[in-house]
Every structure is written in C-alpha cells, then in structure tokens.
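FIELD: query
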Amino acid sequence: MPSETSGHAGAQLIFRNIVSLAKKHQVTLVAFMDSDENHMIESLTNHGINVHTIFYPRNQKSLGSKLSSGIRNIGPMVNSISGKEPFYFAKYKSIKMADLVSKLISESKFDLVQVEYNVMHHYSKQIGDIPNVIVFHDVSSKVYERGKASGNTSNKRFFDMTRILEPSITNKFDAVVTLTEEDHDYLQNLGCESPIHVIPPQITIPAIRSTEKNPKAICFVGSFNREPNIQAVQILIDELFPQLLDKIQLNIIGKDLPNYLVNKIKGIQGINYLGFIDDVDGFLASQMMMVAPIQIGSGLKMKIPHALACGTVVITTPVGAEGIGLEESDGLWIADSNETMVDIINNNIDELDLMIKQGLSGRNAVKEKFSENNIIPKFEILYSEILQA
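FIELD: result
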C-alpha cells in the first residue's frame, strides 16, 4: 500500500509520485492491502486520490493464517514449479483484483493507466485499449542473474524464467519506465521493444533537527524480506566488521532480519540489531556513515539517497550506486572491493567535520537531483507522448 510511512521503498516511491500527480490530475489507485495498512488510506484520500483495495495478507504469524496463505499460494507454487513464472510473480495474480480492475475500467473514463511493478503485469488484459505504461521498480532477471553468479541455484532457475518473461511483459504495454539507465539498457538487451523512459524516484528531504553525530557509529538500513539486503548484512558482519577499528559500532535497522543472523549478531560485540524504528531519519542523521555492501539487485537503491538526504555519507558498491549519479564530493563513496570499503571506513571514522560537510553536500545534491520539480515533469512528458501516439 503506498505510504510515506511504509517500511518498503517502493510504496514510498508510489505514494510520492501519485500525491504529486494528484495536484493536477484525478488519480484513482487500485492496490493490494494488508490488514495493518488500513490507516494508510486516509493519507491518500486527503490528497484527493480515489482508493480501491483488495485484501492481501502477507507475513502471517498465526497458524490459521499461515494455513490460509498456504492454500491461497498452491496455484502460484504450481506455476513456479512448472516454470511458467517465479512464485514472486505468480502470487500477485488475483481473480478479485482482475474483477475490480475490470469494473473500474468499465465504469470510468480513464485517460491512462499506470501499472507499478513488473509482478502486476497480469492485469494488462483488463486495461484493454486504454493508453498505458508499466513502471519496473527493478528488473528481476538482472537480480537473478547477479544472484546466480554467486552460486545460488534457485536464482539460476528463476533467471531462466524471467529472461523470457520480462520482455514479454514490457511488450504488452505502450511504454516502460525504469529507475536507472542500467535497467533501461538491460531491458533493451533482453528484447523489450516498447519505448523505455528513465525516471528516478522522488526523495523526500527530511527536516533534521540536529547534525550531531555519534562519532563511532556506522549503519545499514534495509527491509530484510529481500535477498540483496540479507546478503549485504552477511558481508557486513562476516567480512567487513572484523577488519574495522575496535571502537566502531555497527547498527543495523529494518524489519524481519532472519533469526540466524539475529542470533549471530547477539554474539558479536559492537554490532547491534535494532529492528524497526519509527524515526529512521533521525537515526540516519546521527550516524557517521551508512555502509551498503550490495552485490546483487536492480533498480535504484533508495536507501542510498535517503541516507544522503539525512546528511549522512554513504559507502557502497558499484551495484548499490546504480542510477544515483553522485560522487565522493557529494558524500557518496563507491568501493569496488571489501578492502577498499574497509579502508574508507577506517580512514574517515575520526573525520567528524569532513563527514558532516560531505553529508550536507550529499543532502543538497539529492535535493537538487531527486526533487518533485525534477521528477514529475518527466512523467508529464511521458504521458503526453503516450496520449499523442
């Protein structure tokens, strides 16, 4: 469900864009919604957005709920096992959602339909002849290709499926949006024939009460239902942290870190897993650095410009930096090896004034590059092109 308070970067991206678009357009949102997301509707309707939802429970805890989810997911599992599409795609094919989309299409005169996420491609048939665009928040084939390079056999199987599936998805739509030039080129090479437009996400610049830093603290922020973030934490605790100066403290925040990693962290002095916290902006602003050793993935890693927007420098990999287009003078270090990353951290952890200065430079750079005034006109131009085609 799109929300500024969501712990999911994609939900924040959608929220910011549709709220901005609703200033000039009549926007109708159709979305899956979990049981704990009902309160998010008001923040959308307050901006004049019409909201329609289909209940879709995720991450169920009770035995009964798990059984219900298991039954619901039998079909998607069969599709995944048979090689039609990965489970992550198949589970979002819903008869109720298809019926709702059909109903709204028949009752309303939409000028254009925008589909968010590749996994929501199932409803292109319901859209019919209305001009349309699909936004790829990331390219799954690219994620799986990078994952299989690290020896993950399931990633190899999913890559074999998605490298055929994803170009067929893109070619069902009048236009495609990616968040980065790298994803644009990747989709073209896969066989996407529809026009591809690169539109980065909006990044909100938070009001920071203080630039005071914890002089020993570095951090990583992520949602841990995603393999790239789990792998990054493993690299941090197994490969990077043992080489850091003894005084450095590593703070990890985010929901749903696997128990085996939580238990491992408990046995390592100097590493703290803080789980989900409400004031992420204030936390990020208090850290000397964010370290993001991301090795797999696709799309634009919103945690990177988010940390910079909070005035905190970031050390990441070439994969983590894709689409951001900033450099060291903007507070973004790009390290192509663990050794380089360790050296950057150890050599700069005591440079408080420099970290504050470069963090503020990063904040200003993000404000200029990822502002509403820079991003939304790109959508307006795209819509005009689609409607005139």
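FIELD: remark
The chain has a mean pLDDT of 94.
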